[in-house]
Amino acid sequence: MSRVLGLGGQVFAVLGRLPGADVEAAPRHWALGMWGRLFAVLMVLGPLPGAAAEEAPRRWALIVGENQGLASEERLRFAETDAQRMREVLQEVGTVSPERTMTLLGADATKLREALARFRARLAVEASPRDWLLLYVSSHAGDGSLHLRGTELPMRELVDFLKGAPVGVGLLILDSCRSGVATRLKGLKPVATPITMEASDLEGRVVISASGADEYAQESDALQGSFFTHHLAVGLRGAADASRDGRVTLEEAYRYAYARTLESTLVSPGGMQRPTFRMDLSGRGELILSEPQRARGRLTLDVKAPGRWLVMASESGALVAELEKGEGPTTLAVAPGAYRLLLRAEGGYLERSVKVPLDGAVSVGGEPLEQAARMRLARKGGAGSELLVAVGPSLTSGIVAGLSSLAGLDVRLVREGRLFTGVDTSGLGLAVRRGTGSRVSFQQTELELRLGAGPHWRLGAWTFSGALEAGALAVFQSRIPDEDARFGLEPLGLVTGGVRLDVRSRLSMLLSASAGGVMAKRDSGTALVPRASASLMVGYAL
Fold first, then answer.
1. InterPro entries from the xrefs (predicted)?
2. Domain spans of the chain?
């Protein structure tokens, strides 16, 4: 202490002799002046040795994505896209700088081992025990190994890399997969002995996998990525911020991704998917994974009532976020630019266009959005349904010689509401068509009635549907030379696919195509005649 006071006294004496300084000031101001000057000098000189503030922890990330697995496995579509999405999120809101991020897209086991070795060498030189590391992998997997371009890498090597890294906290996220047909399956291949990574085996480390050891993880064409990675990324952008403090903790991110993944796969062909979580972080408190409040662009959904929202980039049409917003406003970190916001309402989607400024924020709300959210909340749980009436021209193939096609009018009544698992669209169709024979002059009028049901999938303003339909076809033939009019009633069966585009709140356009057969009567008996038709209609939601 005497050394510090001595320094202060000398400096004070020098300051006292500066021009304009009053050395003979009143005694009662002497002590205050001395400590004020001493404080100013210490601020200029900086902190004393040993009093320097500790360097803030740095964050490191190794991101791996590979679409191609073993030769017997179907190529994935979105594993590399998921890896790029996670890199963007970590750099935008996870405070991971590009300089401390290594990305590996399209690599076999040898290249991944080389990348791990390079990253390990760099961490040994630059990392500190206060830093933390995130390792994200999206690829095929099975029997405890990653499947990378025809090669295998045991997951244990990733765990060993994480354990040996000279950082305080290590986080491993595995979104590994094998594929299906319509909904591609992503997940750990079921094995006789489940692969487990217990907390006691990972001191100071966290492991999150997209599914359980005996479950599949799944990709979604609608989300253009895996369910788990999509929901985790959206959660890190702010949807998981339950405390509304502008930061997303590890617990908040996992809870959000788990709940949303479970909901998304509840009735999927791949079965229910439950992400798993193992950790040993005792005594460390909350681990902050992202800070959306620090993002360059921020979008606030300022609607109190819960609701399901779609956030789409206006220019590319890409789905940025599909989220289930809870009570109160929710802020998402997004890149500056133009966006379309869609909220499911009574008559379809209620849409708003917004522009997020550079280094700024925008808030979207208002009475129409609030009412739409409350209407959706009142209907949540499947109690409500939507009824759509559509009408438009149609063209169908003929079932008799000399009449290749018939044109007419198609009227549809479509109900969107779950009947049972996997069937959430049903409809009644009535079509009237007429045509004239080319070889023999006659006129044919058809009246077609059919019932159908099947699933549907939504992507923003678009709805894709499929259905199995059955019904009856009434055929009237008249103006036949030297013959009386004829009448026939034949059964028919069809497979139908449709695309619907919501134009306004209640108005939409529908394109429908069907293929199947009609059991038509012939002189020699009954025969199955192929049948195809297409319709372009305008729909109105009742």
1. Caspase-like_dom_sf (IPR029030), Pept_C14_caspase (IPR011600)
2. 59-292, 296-371, 386-541
Specify the length of the chain in residues.
542
Q: How far apart are CA 457 and CA 430, in angstroms?
A: 24
Q: What is the pLDDT of residues 381-438, one digit of tens each?
A: 333 456 889 999 999 998 887 788 889 999 999 887 777 777 878 899 999 999 888 7
Instruction: Read off the pTM.
Output: 0.57
Given a contact cutoff of 8 angstroms between Cβ atoms, the answer to whether 479 and 437 are in contact is no
Give dist(CA 408, CA 432) in Å, integer. 5
The helix (run of H) or strand (run of E) holding residue 286 is none
> Tokens for 373?
């959210």
Q: What's the token pair of residue 185?
A: 């399956």
**What class, spelled out in words, does domain 59-292 have in CATH?**
alpha beta
Q: Do 198 and 159 meet the contact criterion of CB atoms below 8 Å apart? A: no
How many CA atoms lie within 13 Å of 354's alpha carbon, on the beta-carbon side?
24
Domain 296-371 class in CATH: mainly beta
Decide if 147 contacts 107 (C-beta within 8 A).
Answer: no
Give the list of residues 6+ apart from residue 92 with CB closer than 8 angstroms, or none. 237, 295, 296, 333, 335
Closest CA to 289 of 332, 235, 331: 235
* pLDDT score for 507: 83
CA distances from 372 to 43, 304, 320, 348 (A): 57, 11, 21, 10
Please name which of 449, 237, 441, 209 lies closest in space to residue 334, comparing C-alpha atoms.
237
What six digits make up the tokens of 371?
A: 């009412």
Strand partners, 491: 472
Query: In whole angstroms, what is the distance from residue 483 CA to residue 471 CA?
Result: 29
Which one-letter amino acid corresponds to residue 115? A
Is residue 305 within 8 Å of residue 327, measured between CB atoms?
yes
Q: What CATH number does domain 386-541 carry, 2.40.160.20, 3.40.50.2000, 1.10.565.10, 3.40.190.10?
A: 2.40.160.20
> What letters, b where the CB count within 10 A reaches 16 and e where it falls short, cover 353-364?
ebebeeeeebeb
Cα(449)–Cα(472) distance, rounded to whole angstroms? Answer: 6
Beta-bridge mates of residue 225: 220
What does the alpha-carbon distance between residue 153 and residue 211 come to, in Å, rounded to a whole number?
19
- The percent helix, strand, coil of the chain (3-state, each to 5) is 25, 45, 35
